[in-house]
Amino acid sequence: MSRVGKRPISIPEKVKVLVKDRMVEVEGPKGKLVREIPFNYRITISNNQVIVERLKDDRQTKALHGTVRTLISNMIKGTLEGFEKYLEIVGTGYRAKLEGKVLSLSLGFSHTVSYTPPEGVNIKVMNPTTIRVYGCDKQKVGEVAAQIREIKKPEPYKGKGIRYRGEIVKRKVGKAALGGKG
What we know:
- By secondary structure, the protein is of the alpha+beta class.
- It has 2 domains: 3-80, Outer Surface Protein A, domain 3, CATH 3.90.930.12; 83-164, Ribosomal protein L6 (Outer Surface Protein A, domain 3, Alpha-Beta Complex), CATH 3.90.930.12.
- Helices cover 22% and strands 38% of the residues.
- It has helices at 3-6, 59-80, 138-151; strands at 9-10, 16-20, 23-28, 31-36, 41-46, 49-54, 83-90, 95-99, 102-106, 113-115, 121-127, 130-135, 161-164.
- The radius of gyration is 22 Å and the shape is elongated.
């Protein structure tokens, strides 16, 4: 039995949840999200709570019960509060700036790299070395942050590149520190 899947999800006052066939639609102050739910589950709304029930007891359905419940919970949280990820740019001369909706990154390449976020995800440059990625869809926010980080991953010798806030980059010792003959 899935412990997470059995827990009901409370619906805040500002959020509306609609269930049509296998589509769950959540609308709140931050936006509107729609997701298709697998056919092995029944979603019911009663007493300002969403309840996810399994229709089958096979292995796959049991395994995804908690995941389906968490996806709906994240939709409610995202439309109410939103999700955000912070990226930090480390390196001399590395910087970011926002030109309209397009993010321009100077990362030591011979050219600036431009990135346009998809619909529903916003980018804000807090200072030249800090980027805030935010929106109501948790998956899209994480995906956009990962795509921006992929442009210049932090390298292990000097730690230069784009990293998540709080990410620890394991550093390697360089050639000179090895104490070889020379």
